[in-house]
Amino acid sequence: MLKTSILAAFLAVIALSPAYAAQDLCNEAHMKKMDDMIAKMTDASKKKEATAALDMSKAAMKKGDTAGCMKHMNEAHKAMGL
Ligand SMILES: [Cu+2]
Predict the structure, then answer these.
(1) Which of 5, 28, 53, 67 sits CB 3.0–4.6 Å from 75 for a disulfide?
(2) Crossing angle between the packed helical segments 18-25 and 2-15, to the nearest 10 degrees
């Protein structure tokens, strides 16, 4: 069940042009926005989770690893409740 919905979500992302989505989210402007949003989080453990995921996302972005950047970005979004 869970695997099926993850796969469905994954396919939906591909259908919606991953290049555009990655370009839209894996950049300095969005990272700044994420930092601001995380700074406003009130749940300490979720905040820590989001910060850790975003750090990994930034590291992947610097390496030019867009897939890794998006993977960790999604984890950060999830921790943020997005
Ligand atoms: Cu983001």
Answers:
(1) 53
(2) 90
Per-residue model confidence as pLDDT tens digits over 43-75:
999 999 999 999 999 999 999 999 999 999 999
- Residue 67 CB-density burial (10 A; 0-12 exposed, 13-18 middle, 19+ buried): exposed
Angle at 43 between CA 30 and CA 47, to 5 degrees: 40
Cα 76 to averaged position of ligand 1 atoms, centre (Å): 7
Nearest to 70 by CA among 37, 6, 9, 24: 24
pLDDT class of 14 with cuts at 50, 70, 90: very low
